[in-house]
Amino acid sequence: MIEGILIGLTTALTFQNILMVMVGCFFGTIIGMLPGLGPMTAIALMIPITYGFDPATGLILMAGVYYGAVFGGSTSSILLNAPGVPGTVATSFDGYPMAQQGMAGKALAIAAWSSFAGGTLSAIYLLFMAPSLSKVSLSFRSPDYFALMILGLTAIAAFSSKGQFLKAMMMVVLGLMLASVGQDSLSDITRFTFNNMNLTDGISFVLVVMATFAMSEALTIILKRNDPTSAAKQVSLTELGSIKINKEERTKMYKTVPRSSVIGFLIGVLPGAGATIASFLAYGMERNVVSDDEKEKFGKGSVNGLSAPETANNAACSGSFVPMLTLGIPGSGTTAVMLGALLGFGVQPGPRLYMTNPEIFWSIIMSMYIGMVILLILNLPLIPYIARILAVPKNYLIPLILFFSVTGIYVMSFNNFDIYLMIGIAVVATFLRLYDFPMPPLILAFVLGGLMEENLRRSLLLSNGSWEFLWDRTLTACILATTILIVVWHTYKTFKSKN
Amino acid sequence: MNINTTKIISLLFFIFSAFYLYTAYQIQVFAFDENAPFNARTFPIYLGYAGLFFSGLKLILPDPNTLKVDHKNLEYKKTGILILIAIIYGATILKVGYFLTTSLFLFASYYFLGERRWILMFLLSFPFVAAFMYLLHGILDIYLRDPFLQSIGVMG
After folding, report:
1. What residue ranges do the domains of chain A occupy?
2. Assembly ipTM
């Protein structure tokens, strides 16, 4: 492992890669501060830029964007009570009251230090857990992988939002359907191309991500007459006050950070669950374990109440890399985008990534840590200035998002058809968003579609067409039972809500 | 059963899944693969049934969080114009070239979204695209086809 860490450090600490982490964190903070534009959009917009880099550098840039976006989301939560990303909603419970009491700078500093500590601890957990899990997952067989993918897709649908399970499952199926367009990987038989040569190679992953996130988010903002930049304009005018944290506040954080980081990391590892659930759980747990006096302060500007969700959401970000790096199965929409980008680089994540491409594996882990340091040193003091850059009118922001989306597709294919297809998918996605159909399950399903079919193929061929492979092995049966429980529970809840 | 737009979307998805399933059954597989445990049409067939199942459930089961969208407050005109500009952009980018079409696309988008600060609009279109092109083409070595710039001798 020491050798791996050194390989990772050697790759991550090159001038180019440090620059990429800095650019990523900065850009991610900007996008994360805009309510409605989350890390997935930020990462999607970065994909065309990564074409010019090697896989490790490209992924380091995307990881920086991810952390920056989460940090940016916290900033707008604390200063404006307008969370930029769902994972920072719990941050606003105590962060915003602190800002209202004239301690905005302090609240930002507590959030930044908690994020840093949570990220650091979870990077350590990841450091130890990922290689061990990689070794364990080598014993996984096709039926286990197939069942795991079904569980991952069901879980992301279940956790998408309250009462939207069936909508999310429809999006999962739509994502898998889109992934089935093009040549069959084994027989080369074309499917759903309707004799259109442009569809023979299937629909590009970048195209689907750009259409369902960057482009459709831009169209939704115009359609709903939202102005995400209005928040930034207010931030740039806010008096932050001191960013110093006193001894008493530090003492409180020392207790909160370790327990919240464990919760955050473990929730992040679970497929489908992510920063949002982790931050709410950590907030709830913290409220239960603190003294009665401190409990009274919750919701009114408690240091523990702010530190817990911030630690947990950053720890969950690191945790969500575990299934992607060790099993090749992303646990969240954001890591699904990264997985898609990795596949585009010709790198197949999974248990063998640790052995075949150690420089990628370890440099991602190392760059996460470097990203945390950069967020703390550079972004925290720069928040008011970043907000000033952000305060551009939406009349400029929206065309620029559309420009990055179209450019991303253009440089990839030099094909008009792909641009039309992207616009078509974006229009449908905008309409679906309007009626609360979640997009992350669609992306995750699209990325996993090919792998899922491949593992089902192997499983069915090995079992001679019998579906017994689903319960032949205890591990497969357990994973499947969990999936069935999730489906039955959510369908029952929907049915019960009638009464 | 309460009919709302979500139900209509579910119905459309149900019809789409039925069409997908029909097309999946039409996929031509090799003769020796016809009765194999798994062939090119197996997975799509399961997906078609899954689509029917979930959209069917959504149609039948009550909708606990019925979402009402106020269409009067939606900005259809500007959204439609932006989509149209993007389509024109897509149609001309290959023939005219990246620089000119992208710059005009940005300029037109700013204009139709209500911007009238001409100098800023110009700076955030033509020079901005030139700088971005330099980043992609010149620094990152990502090829950008541009017949317009080639015709005036700016690009080789």
Report:
1. 2-496
2. 0.93
